[in-house]
Amino acid sequence: MTTPKNELLFVALGGSGEIGMNVNLYGCQGKWLMVDCGITFADPAYPGIELILPDLQFIEERADDLLGIVLTHGHEDHIGALPYLAEDLGVPLYATAFTAGLIRGKLEEEGNAKRVKLNVVDTTKTLQLGPFGVDFIPLSHSIPEMSGLSIATPYGRVFHTGDWKLDASPVIGKPAAPEQLSAIGDGGVLALVCDSTNVFNNDPSGSEADVRAGITEVVAKAKGRVLVTTFASNAARLHTLGEVAKQTGRALCVAGRSLDRILKVAKATGYLKDFPATVDPEAAMRLPRDKVMIVATGGQGEDRAALSRVAFGSHPIKLDAGDTVVFSSKQIPGNEVAIGRIQNQLAAKGIVMITDRQAHVHVSGHPGRPELAQMYKWLRPEILMPVHGEMRHLMEQARFALSEGVPQALVQSNGEIVRLAPGNPQKIGHAPIGRLVLDGDVLLPGDGGTINERRKLSINGQMSVAVAIGGRGLIGTPQVRYNGLPVEEDRVPFLEETVDAVIAATKQPPKDREKLREAIRLATRKVATRWTGKKPIVDVLLIEA
Ligand SMILES: [Zn+2]
Ligand SMILES: [Zn+2]
């Protein structure tokens, strides 16, 4: 059992070596602190699954020593697992008001808001949790109240960035304060644990304020209806879209449940006060085409989101030739196919599409190299430890930091236990890691028996054979059913041949029922392989009559 002694440990249970599902642990003097607890979205390797969560077994076994979970910001890859995992950990959560508002909504939806202690932090004070003194430091990102964490410990200070960028005019929230970050650097930073998402970008991410001009230009020129899709949680972008609607004299219609939710939390926490009054989709459709602007979710190609439904004609908002769809978001790697499907559908209708390739309608929320270099200069860490990236991103940030004069860089991946201090940083062991999947309403191990069966089913198809056996052998005709094979016009002869093969296999039924079952299974599979070249799962039901 790893228990942190007089030392400072770091372990990522998710988010290092992948983009998504961030969970980081700091250990010191017998205690642990968790930073973020996020999810990842579906992956074709998990058929039928929409949400993937980190396996927290390592810290669940040490839950008595876990002091709490501190959240950097409200994106799904940082808070999304809380509704499913926080209650069992039984520790308090700490977040700023906006982030806490989003978490509360999720806990309420999952029905455990009363059983999870959620604290709104006072960002003007240090949050002391055992040996960890945590200060929330405002940084810009694509959601309000993103907070870098300056974590003081008896073995040195860690600056855990969360997701960040530098933006002198972030539209919502305070820009990063150079004096504050320099002052933290003056006090000495042992380790900078830093976002690696955009390390391959040579340019800075760009300012949210500049997006306004780009979107205004596009909307002002547009002839018919305009639909803009963006991430619901990007409240600054929503503010911008509200302003664009006012400026171009268009009524605003908001389509998507997650947008309603964000608007509610944002208004409750003091943002978007001057967001224009909205019209519902039916009213929007009655307005002249050039007098309406729709904001919709679904720019990542999500099946059930508003944009997909608009594209496929099952939403009250209808678009026609000459209307415009603006993608005020970037394609998240992995979503290209789903986005392409929607764009093809829109293209077929003659709808004009504007992405960040045609106009300045989006800026990223993660730091490019100039911003990373600036952060290194302010904080002057002894060690750079990259997180929030695939292995190629982590390696690249390590190289970049060394080239910018950071004395040491340490690349770790999920499950590696790193001792940051005392002494030289080093890896001292392994924590078990893994993925859980939310399958319907239940959490299952991502590589457990059930999901493996699901994969086999989706790849090979399945057959069931029911056979009644009495003292003198087979009774009646075996019943055969199939799912997912063979080709449709072959089904009748395929079925007949399978039944014959099963009858043959039961001619001299062995006393040992398991042997009989296996003989029937093999006979059935042989027919299937001959007809299809595949090896389906075969279930044999023996009924003793
Ligand atoms: Zn993130
Ligand atoms: Zn984020």
Task: Note the topology.
Layout: E1 8-14, E2 23-28, E3 31-35, E4 40-41, E5 51-54, H1 57-60, E6 66-70, H2 76-79, H3 82-89, E7 93-95, H4 97-110, E8 118-120, E9 127-129, E10 132-138, E11 147-153, E12 156-160, H5 178-186, E13 189-195, H6 208-221, E14 226-229, H7 235-247, E15 251-255, H8 257-268, H9 281-286, E16 292-296, H10 306-311, E17 324-327, H11 336-348, E18 352-354, H12 369-379, E19 381-387, H13 391-403, E20 408-409, E21 416-421, E22 426-430, E23 435-439, E24 442-445, H14 449-460, E25 462-470, E26 473-483, H15 491-505, H16 513-532, E27 537-544
Parallel strand pairs: 3-6, 6-7, 7-8, 12-13, 13-19, 14-16, 14-17, 15-16, 17-18, 19-20, 25-27
Antiparallel strand pairs: 1-2, 1-21, 2-3, 4-5, 5-23, 9-10, 10-11, 11-12, 21-22, 23-24, 25-26
Helix pairs in contact: 4-8, 5-12, 6-7, 15-16
The site of one zinc ion has 6 residues, from helix 2.
